[in-house]
Structure formats: structure tokens, C-alpha cells
Amino acid sequence: MAYKKYLNKNFAIFCGPGNNGGDGLAIARLLSLSGHAVQVFLLNSASKRSSDFDINYKCLKEVASVIIDLKEISLPSLAADTIIIDAIFGTGLNRSLDGFSKQLVEYINRLNNKVVAIDMPSGLLTDLSSKGLTAIKANNTLTFQCFKAAFLLPENEEYFGNVHILDINLHPSYLNSVETTFELVDQQFISSIIKLRKAFSHKGNFGHALIIAGSYGKMGAAVLSTKACLQSGAGLVTAHVPAKGVEIMQISAPEAMCRIDTQSEIISNIDYDLKPYTSIGIGPGIGKEKMTTSFLYQLLKDYQKPMVIDADALNILSENPDWLSLLPPGSILTPHPKEYARLFGNDMNDLEKINTALQKAHDLKIIIILKGHHTFIATPDGKGYFNTTGNAGMAKGGSGDVLTGIITGILAQGYKPNEAAILGVYMHGAAGDNAAAKYGMISMTATDLIEALKTPDLLTK
Ligand SMILES: NC(=O)C1=CN([C@@H]2O[C@H](COP(=O)(O)OP(=O)(O)OC[C@H]3O[C@@H](n4cnc5c(N)ncnc54)[C@H](O)[C@@H]3O)[C@@H](O)[C@H]2O)[C@@H](O)CC1
Ligand SMILES: Nc1ncnc2c1ncn2[C@@H]1O[C@H](COP(=O)(O)OP(=O)(O)O)[C@@H](O)[C@H]1O
Ligand SMILES: [K+]
């Protein structure tokens, strides 16, 4: 955060009666001691105060500063350049705001002043959905020690602004001992998964991926996923494509071998042994023709190893929900929000969405990747992972095809399905961040994502 922007400004600090309010009072003291003009507004100060509040209240009283008890009738008027600090409620809020606290938050939101929220924007709930609730709309949120799940959900986007994590020195062994349903996937996490390539290894050590993709007019999806697969570390890659798509594929991705469908424009059957392939990715650009649909059914019935399932293969599944039970255990589904809604329903808030994904992942013994900003990976053992790489430059056609190729290639190398999903999503986002740094979010394309995979420190920085 550009802290310098806030130097020598006036501050209005709104404090609730709990520990969050206590943090606000401590901030007021420190700002006062460093010569800033500070006004402190207390909400419900007569109600039960936490001990942290009381301690910090006493300390603040010893420093000259203005402390005002807020009454319903008198909301304060503030100069336009006063910085508002929101220390009304933090993680202790257990229900939606009402009465005066709601009125106060609505009032602060109507002002054009810059707002810094402490720990959580007041009104946001930590463990429940905040969809449709009243909460502070902050420009910046200074949160303590850990990212809160609430900052990872699209429905909360307008509330927290830029999130900064402040280290308050909680002991690492304490943090490691806390069992959580959700994990953040960052570089450290990835370094615990990644396998080194041994010096004496050969292509046979890195598996053989089969990408089943494309139809007439949608060969681009097949090319993107095949090229991404080639750059994910797989030893060998074969693309199964409609007959008319072979030349396109061979010219675009000469390192890949081709299997040629008996149909010229669609995918309709596989008449060869699938044993040599160590992973299969199916879906990008395949369409939903009858023959393709029957072929998918047959494949689901016959194939036993985990598959990566994307795009039209997901759409076919959503039209035939009974087939979900045929998915080989460990299979990885990669729906974007619309595909997810078609598969599992429409009217869910973001928390319901991720909880449903966890439940379905458990029941069907599969992995569900809910794509978006902070892509969520639901695993069958009940854990969910939020990704930390990626950016809005990736919100373009073709980005998902690249992800399918990457995950299929990682799965081919012998990574466990959970690991392949997590590593693939992280790598894809890291490539997106590299592409954005090089070309900018507006102009970068899915092809640039593939190009950006070729970065030596992609997984180590
Ligand atoms: N390890 C930690 O947990 C730390 C927590 N800290 C601070 O402590 C905060 C949590 O403090 P608290 O647990 O005291 O909780 P809060 O200060 O967030 O709020 C609790 C107060 O709000 C009241 N309340 C709850 N829901 C309400 C509603 N809908 N309407 C009106 N009043 C409502 C409660 O009765 C209680 O008085 C964190 O957000 C953070 O700011 C930090 O001081 C550092 C360490
Ligand atoms: N705002 C964003 N931040 C981070 N990643 C994003 C963002 N928008 C899209 N992406 C990523 O880009 C990919 C888009 O996939 P998808 O919608 O299936 O594209 P397509 O089907 O056109 O290939 C997903 O992996 C998604 O996570
Ligand atoms: K707050």
C-alpha cells in the first residue's frame, strides 16, 4: 500500500465495542502520537465492551485526542480529504447489521472519503455468505495474519478493495496446527508438490497424454490445449482430432502425434488401445453432436483411470446427469461459472457454490475446479484450495483450453489427481501473470499464456 499517501492526513476512526474497535483505538493512539489529527467515533460504547477495547480506551484517554460517542441523531460531517478507518466490526460479527450500525455503514458508504477497513470491512461475515448484506465498501483492507475466505469470493468484490496482510507474529507452529477446510495455494505450497526432473530421465518417465479435442470450426481449442499440454512437462502428447483437423494440428503442434477420427468434422469413436496413455483430457471444442455424445458415454463406461473433463464434455454431462456416476474416481472437472451452473444448479451464493462443489467432489470421488479469479479446487477428501495466481487478462476465449492441456499433461506425468489439479491451476495463473507483465491484461491472449509457460522461474518465484 502507498502508506505515504496517508501521511499528514486527518483521520476519522469508527470503533465498535469489540476487539476490532480495540484495534481502532490503538491505531488512534499511534496516529495521535505521530502528530496526526484524529477524531474517534464510538458505536454502542455503553454496551458490553471487550477487554481489549477497555485497555486501548484507557491508553487513548492518556493521549490528547477527540473521542465522541455516536448517537443515532448525529452522524458526523467529515472534510472530504479525511481518511476513514473502519474498526466497527471484524471477525466477531455473527449476523447481518441492523439498526444504527447499519445506518452508520450506509452513511460511510455514501461519503466519498477514502476508507481503510481493519481486519474485515464491517458487515462482511467471515463464515457465511454476505450476498445482499450491508457492509463497508473499503478502498483498502488491512487484515491480520491470514487471508479470510470472504476476500476470495466474487460476490464480495465491491467491499474489500486492495487487501494487505499484516503479520501480527502469530507463532508458525500455531498456524500449522490449525486444521482448516480451505487452503491458499501459493509458491510455498507448490514447492511441496513439485517433482524434480531427474538428470538420467527419458521421455518414458513423463507419461503420454491424450488430448481428445476439436471439431470443424473449433480446431483452435484443440491446438491450444495440445500446445499447452506439450509445455506442461509431459513426455509424449497425442491429439485425437476429426479427420479434417489433422493438418491444422500437425502444422501448429509438430511435437504432438495425431490420432485421426473416422468422422471428418467431429469426434465419434476411438478404435485403438488406450492403455499406452497415462492421462486423457477431453472436451475443448468437441461440440455436442449425437455421435460425439454417444462416444463420450462409451468412454466413460469403458475407461477406468482419471480423466480431465472440460467444455463441451461438461455440457454433455450436464444434459445427462446420470453419467456423472460413471466418472472414473480422481477425474478432474474444469467448469467455468456457467458450466458449473448447468451441472450443479443456478441459484447459489458463492459459499453455497463452493460447499456444493466440496460435497459433489466427495460423493463422486472427483475433483471440481471452479474457474475464475481465485479459482477454487474442491477435492474428494473434503478440502478446498483457493489459487493465488492469475488475472483478468485471462478472461478471454481459449484460456480454459490451455488449462485443460496443462492439467492433462501434469496428470500424465504421474502426479496424483489432487496435485495435478492444484499445480495445473497455479501454473496456468502464473503464466497469465507473466503474460500480463509482458503484454498487458488488455492485449494478452491464450496463445500468450502458452508462450509464458516457458519461463524458467515460473514455479519458483
Ligand atoms: N487472533 C485474533 O483473533 C486477533 C483479533 N484481533 C481483532 O479482533 C477482532 C475480533 O474481535 P471480537 O471477537 O471482539 O469481535 P468484533 O470486534 O468483530 O465484534 C464483536 C462485537 O460486535 C457485537 N456484534 C456481533 N454481531 C453484531 C451485529 N450484527 N450487530 C451489532 N453488534 C454485533 C458483539 O456482541 C461484540 O460486542 C478481529 O477482527 C480483529 O480486529 C486483533 O486484535 C488481533 C488478534
Ligand atoms: N479475472 C480473472 N482472474 C484470474 N483468472 C481468470 C480471470 N478470468 C478468467 N480467468 C481464468 O481463465 C480461464 C477461462 O476459462 P474458460 O472460461 O473456460 O475459457 P474458454 O472456455 O474460453 O477457454 C479460467 O482458468 C479462469 O480461471
Ligand atoms: K472493520
Automatic annotation (TrEMBL):
<feature type="binding site">
    <location>
        <position position="400"/>
    </location>
    <ligand>
        <name>AMP</name>
    </ligand>
</feature>
<keyword id="KW-0456">Lyase</keyword>
<dbReference type="Pfam" id="PF01256">
    <property type="entry name" value="Carb_kinase"/>
</dbReference>
<keyword id="KW-0521">NADP</keyword>
<dbReference type="InterPro" id="IPR029056">
    <property type="entry name" value="Ribokinase-like"/>
</dbReference>
<dbReference type="InterPro" id="IPR004443">
    <property type="entry name" value="YjeF_N_dom"/>
</dbReference>
<comment type="similarity">
    <text>In the N-terminal section; belongs to the NnrE/AIBP family.</text>
</comment>
<keyword id="KW-0547">Nucleotide-binding</keyword>
<comment type="similarity">
    <text>In the C-terminal section; belongs to the NnrD/CARKD family.</text>
</comment>
<keyword id="KW-0511">Multifunctional enzyme</keyword>
<feature type="binding site">
    <location>
        <position position="221"/>
    </location>
    <ligand>
        <name>(6S)-NADPHX</name>
    </ligand>
</feature>
<dbReference type="InterPro" id="IPR017953">
    <property type="entry name" value="Carbohydrate_kinase_pred_CS"/>
</dbReference>
<protein>
    <recommendedName>
        <fullName>ADP-dependent (S)-NAD(P)H-hydrate dehydratase</fullName>
        <ecNumber>4.2.1.136</ecNumber>
    </recommendedName>
</protein>
<keyword id="KW-0413">Isomerase</keyword>
<dbReference type="InterPro" id="IPR030677">
    <property type="entry name" value="Nnr"/>
</dbReference>
<feature type="binding site">
    <location>
        <begin position="371"/>
        <end position="375"/>
    </location>
    <ligand>
        <name>AMP</name>
    </ligand>
</feature>
<comment type="subunit">
    <text>Homotetramer.</text>
</comment>
<dbReference type="InterPro" id="IPR036652">
    <property type="entry name" value="YjeF_N_dom_sf"/>
</dbReference>
<keyword id="KW-0520">NAD</keyword>
<comment type="function">
    <text>Catalyzes the dehydration of the S-form of NAD(P)HX at the expense of ADP, which is converted to AMP. Together with NAD(P)HX epimerase, which catalyzes the epimerization of the S- and R-forms, the enzyme allows the repair of both epimers of NAD(P)HX, a damaged form of NAD(P)H that is a result of enzymatic or heat-dependent hydration.</text>
</comment>
<feature type="binding site">
    <location>
        <position position="336"/>
    </location>
    <ligand>
        <name>(6S)-NADPHX</name>
    </ligand>
</feature>
<feature type="binding site">
    <location>
        <position position="285"/>
    </location>
    <ligand>
        <name>(6S)-NADPHX</name>
    </ligand>
</feature>
<dbReference type="InterPro" id="IPR000631">
    <property type="entry name" value="CARKD"/>
</dbReference>
<feature type="domain" description="YjeF C-terminal">
    <location>
        <begin position="186"/>
        <end position="460"/>
    </location>
</feature>
<feature type="domain" description="YjeF N-terminal">
    <location>
        <begin position="1"/>
        <end position="176"/>
    </location>
</feature>
<feature type="binding site">
    <location>
        <position position="401"/>
    </location>
    <ligand>
        <name>(6S)-NADPHX</name>
    </ligand>
</feature>
<dbReference type="Pfam" id="PF03853">
    <property type="entry name" value="YjeF_N"/>
</dbReference>
<keyword id="KW-0067">ATP-binding</keyword>
<keyword id="KW-0479">Metal-binding</keyword>
<keyword id="KW-0630">Potassium</keyword>
<comment type="function">
    <text>Bifunctional enzyme that catalyzes the epimerization of the S- and R-forms of NAD(P)HX and the dehydration of the S-form of NAD(P)HX at the expense of ADP, which is converted to AMP. This allows the repair of both epimers of NAD(P)HX, a damaged form of NAD(P)H that is a result of enzymatic or heat-dependent hydration.</text>
</comment>
